[in-house]
Structure formats: structure tokens, C-alpha cells
Amino acid sequence: MGSRALFGRYYPAASPVHRLDARAKLLLVLGAFAAVFAASSYPALGACALFVALFYGAARIPAGEAARAVAPLLALVLATAVLNLFFVQGGTTYLEWGPVRVSEGGVASAAFLSCRLGLLVLVASLLTLTTTTFDVTEASERLLGPLRRLGAPVHEMAMMMAIALRFLPQLADELTTLRRAQASRGAPLSLNPLRGGLATARSLVVPLFASALRHAARLSTAMDARCYHGGQGRTRLHPFALHGRDAVAALAVLAMAGCVLALDFLGAGASGIV
């Protein structure tokens, strides 16, 4: 059950977003990232959130599945917010205790960056929820194809990414199994580093790494047995092809970026008038 909250798990559904060309989805995700990064006000972030919600609705992904997909990365959002809360200073001081100081500027920075990072996580999660690992790696290889002329091992890089994404759910399942096995043997599992947390990490990480190395050895043996030599001459059962729905999705992302720029411009103009 723990692996169901793993970022990167594909959610099968018959939706227009699922049927988009994988190459187009990668480029559109980069465009959405640029729009979210360009947003410098809450109204602009609100426009981004509205478009992201529309994309999730078009993808027919339940809210529970979306929440489980982004849950593993919320710790990163929380850690970034805490760092900004304590290290960004300015304005009225709300709390001061020794070297720790929380000010108005820190609270504002933490809140804004949390919203921005949350939207970025949702956009990235939408890609993985609607695109299989194989399509993501194949699309990455196609988009990076021109780098072959510079001698870059494009196919090998895409293959490594595919293998890493493929084994993430399996390693998460094995970590859950190891934790339950250690608990059933009476091992004191603690998350507190001062009270056995390091021993707990060692008892879980060492066998997990050993299992990962075994999987890597078996995979390499299987690839050698099948005479795998890279991507030379490989074909696809279902070739990539652009359709009208890809153009509609591109227009939606452009509209999202246009709303962000317009709202930021209006906000800057209003503050200038004031």
C-alpha cells in the first residue's frame, strides 16, 4: 500500500490528456513550468492553479489519486518553506528566540514559494500519471536526438532513466516489506536520530541496497542473454504522431502563460499607480 503514494505511478484512463503525443506532453510540461516560474503574484499563481485543475479534469484523474501521487514530494515543499521562513528576513518580527527569527518577509516568502512548488509538483505529477514510463523515455530520446551529432549517448541516457523509473515502485514495495519484517522480529524502528534512528536506517538501507544490486545484476544478465545492443534500428509498435488535440493543448498552455503575464503586468501597474 505504501507504494501507491509513489510519485511517478501511471494512472490508466481514456482521456484526451492520456492520448496526447508524449513528445508534446514533455514540451508542454516545460512550458507550464516556465509559466509557473514567471508568476510573481498570487493572482498569477491562481490562474496557473485554475489551468492545472482544468488539465487534471480533462485527464479524468480522481482527486485522491492526484493527492497520493504528489504526497511523497510534499516533504520537499515543506522543507523549502521552513528554510525560507527562518532565513528570509524583513518587515515586522513575529518571533525571536536566540538565533531563530521569524519575520513578515520570511512568512510571505515561505507561503509564496510553497504555492509555486506545489503547482510545479502537480504539473510534473500530471505527466507521470498520464504517460507510461516507456513513452516518457522514448519521447525524451526523440527530443534529445540532435545531441547524437555531438557524441552524446542519448539512447543510453534514456534507457537509464527508464530503468530508474521502472524500479522505483518495486524498491518502494521492498522497503515496506523490509520495514514490516524488521518490526515483526522486534526491531526497535525509530525515526528519531538520537534514539536509534541511525540504527533503523542502517537496518533498512543495507538490505535495500543489496536487493537493488541483485536486481541490477539480473537485469544485465537478461539483457546480455537477449543480445541487447542499444537502440540501433529499433522501431515502435505505435509510432509517435501529432494530432489536433496536441495543438489544442499547446494553445491551452499558451493561454496559461498569457494570463500569467497579463496578471503580473496589471499587478505591477496597479502597484506603480499606488
Written overview of the protein:
The chain is mostly helical and 274 residues long. It folds into two domains: 164 residues, no CATH class; 86 residues, no CATH class. It contains nine helices and two strands. A two-stranded antiparallel ribbon has the order 1-2. Helix 2 packs antiparallel against helix 9. The longest helix is centred in the last third of the chain and has 33 residues. The radius of gyration is 23 Å and the shape is globular. The termini are far apart. The relative contact order is 0.16.
List the domain count as a whole number.
2
Task: Describe the global form.
Answer: globular
Decide which structural class fits the backbone. Answer: mainly alpha
Rg value: 23 Å
Strand tally: 2
Task: Please write the string of helix (H) and strand (E) elements.
Answer: HHHHEEHHHHH
- Termini separation: 54 Å
Instruction: Report strand %.
Output: under 5%
Strand arrangement, major sheet: 1-2
Q: How many H/I helical runs?
A: 9
| Proportion of helical residues | 55-70%
Stretches with pLDDT under 50, minimum 5 residues: 1-5
Oligomer: single chain
Mean of all residue-level pLDDT scores: 80
Q: Characterize the biggest β-sheet.
A: 2 strands, antiparallel
Features:
2 domains; globular; single chain; mainly alpha; disordered N terminus; 274 residues
List the helices and strands and how they pair.
Elements: H1 22-38, H2 42-59, H3 63-70, H4 74-87, E1 93-97, E2 100-103, H5 104-130, H6 133-143, H7 154-184, H8 193-225, H9 244-273
Antiparallel strand pairs: 1-2
Helix pairs in contact: 1-5, 1-9, 2-5, 2-9, 4-5, 6-7, 7-8
